[in-house]
Amino acid sequence: MYKNSFVFFILPAFFFFSSCHTAVHVPVPGESQVKINNIYTEYYNIADSYMELEKYDKAIEFYSIALKNKTLFWSAYYKMGRAYALAKNYKEARKIYNKLLRRDKANTDLQVSIAYLYAMEGNITSAINIYEYLCGKYPENSEILVNFINVLIADKRMDYAKSKFEELKKVFPDNSSIQEFEKVFAEAEDSADDTNKKTEK
Length: 201
What we know:
Blueprint: H1 2-23, H2 31-52, H3 56-66, H4 73-86, H5 90-103, H6 108-121, H7 124-137, H8 142-154, H9 158-171, H10 178-200
Helix pairs in contact: 2-3, 3-4, 4-5, 5-6, 6-7, 7-8, 8-9
């Protein structure tokens, strides 16, 4: 009697677990979080695709969603700043780069980017101040000096630009920008000569 009762008890239990195995999915610990992370990774990849298509507003939208994934946050945040810059929303881009710089204070690329963004915003004084600081701190970096000269030319500070250009030729004689700068300065001198001739007449 007891033996049969035992069998009777075992059989329903066996069928219950068998049916669970085939019909009901038992959650694996952490599985739902993995799925969520995969979704955010997809958003991140979609944002990258929009960047390639130069649809920066859409890229910003998807990067902002990807920020919710902690592992993607800083990468997505940086790319969102770049998307803002390319969309010519320089103020928002600068806010992001400033936050990134507070996290990575020695990052030269971020400092150069911030100087550039100030220049594009029309805040030439701030841009020049940063470039002067960077040129002093990284005298071996020709790219910073080239960018600085470009900003000075854009602001029509030609004498200052020429002095930095002489520095470029002396320290980096093989720099590819030298020829282009020579043309710019020659054209500026020709324009100044024409203006002087008209004034004399």
